[in-house]
Structure formats: structure tokens, C-alpha cells
Design brief:
Blueprint: H1 3-18, H2 37-55, H3 74-88, E1 97-100, E2 104-107, H4 108-130, H5 138-149, H6 177-184
Antiparallel strand pairs: 1-2
Helix pairs in contact: 1-3, 1-4, 2-3, 2-4, 4-5, 5-6
């Protein structure tokens, strides 16, 4: 499995959903607590740029993870940040240890798995918000599910300042993989 190819496909899948958003939808609430669609898109642009900065060796500068600016064209901002992300993750970066936000240092391959998880989940968030279909490739969901399963579980009462996602919610074990993934990151796909 080429993790860089999976990441590019996850970026493209999310980009396809973002391309369907209109300016009148940017104030809509999303499944991400406290985020409007504008905030979620800005977060994803910031994440792409943050991962790119980490691949370039930026450490100890949390501001590198908050550089996203949607300007007047959120889709263009996303595409530009996705391109920066893709260019930054060369073959040699996969074996380097990268600082990912305040979460710590991870091998580049692991960092890309975390990024795929972010793209797949936020793709669902955007699709749910704007009311469009979302059907990411099974291998993307499978990787994201494996990464999410390794995130320490919290409880709803945790303040979890270092948590990347909301506490897990119970989803039936025989549910489709995407629904199980969404449950692990605190989403309720049926609601």
C-alpha cells in the first residue's frame, strides 16, 4: 500500500465534496461541535498546511497549524493547501519523525495515516452539512478506521485538551465500516 497515494485520494475525495459547497452554506453548523462549515473548511486548509510544515521540519511552532485562510474561494484555498501537502510528503519524509500539532512526534507514514483519517471524517462532515452523497473508497475508510481505533478513548466528561476528535459513540459492530469509523470519532451517522 502506498500511503502517499491513499492520502492523495483522500484529499481528492474531500476536495470533490468541498467543490459542491456554495457561499450561502458557509454559516451552516456541522457535525463538528462549535464549527460552522466555514470553520471546518478553514480547519482542513490549516491542517493541510500544518502537515506540510511538519514535513518540512517545522517543530515547536503551533502557529504552523493555524495558517488556513479561505479568502474568497474556499475550494481554491483547499486545493492549494492540498497541493502543498502532497508536494511536502516526499518518499524520504515517510521515514522521518514529524511533530504533529501538540500530539507529539510520529513517523511520516503514521502522520499520513492520521491525515487520511482527518480527510475521510471531515469529508463526511462536509457532505452531511450540505446534504450531498458521500462514498469514499473502501480502502480509505479501512485505513482511517484502523488509525481511529488506535486513538485513546475518552469519555464525554473529559476535557481532553489534546484530543483530536469527540469521544466515541456506540455503533453496532455489524454496521458498515464508515459508520463504525464515524462512531469512533464521536459522530452519530444515523442522526
Amino acid at each position: 500500500m502506498d500511503i502517499r497515494d491513499l492520502d492523495r485520494r483522500a484529499l481528492d475525495t474531500l476536495g470533490t465534496v468541498i467543490a459542491q459547497t456554495g457561499p450561502d452554506q458557509l454559516r451552516l453548523p456541522t457535525p463538528c461541535a462549535d464549527w460552522t462549515l466555514h470553520g471546518l473548511l478553514r480547519h482542513q486548509v490549516s491542517e493541510n498546511l500544518g502537515f506540510a510544515a511538519a514535513a518540512a521540519g517545522v517543530t515547536d511552532d503551533i502557529r504552523a497549524w493555524d495558517q488556513g485562510d479561505l479568502g474568497g474561494d474556499p475550494h481554491r484555498a483547499y486545493r492549494d493547501s492540498a497541493e502543498a501537502m502532497t508536494k511536502a510528503f516526499t518518499e524520504d519524509v515517510l521515514e522521518q519523525r514529524l511533530q504533529i500539532r501538540e500530539f507529539g512526534f510520529f513517523p511520516g507514514r503514521v502522520a499520513l495515516g492520521m491525515h487520511v483519517l482527518d480527510c475521510v471524517v471531515h469529508g463526511w462532515d462536509v457532505a452531511r452539512t450540505i446534504g450531498v452523497a458521500y462514498d469514499p473508497d473502501a480502502d480509505l475508510v479501512d485505513l482511517a478506521l484502523r488509525v481511529a481505533a488506535r486513538i485513546p478513548a475518552g469519555s464525554p466528561s473529559d476535557d481532553r485538551p489534546r484530543a483530536a476528535f469527540a469521544p466515541a459513540v456506540e455503533i453496532a459492530a455489524d454496521s458498515p465500516a464508515l459508520e463504525r469509523l464515524l462512531g469512533l470519532v464521536g459522530r452519530r451517522p444515523a442522526s
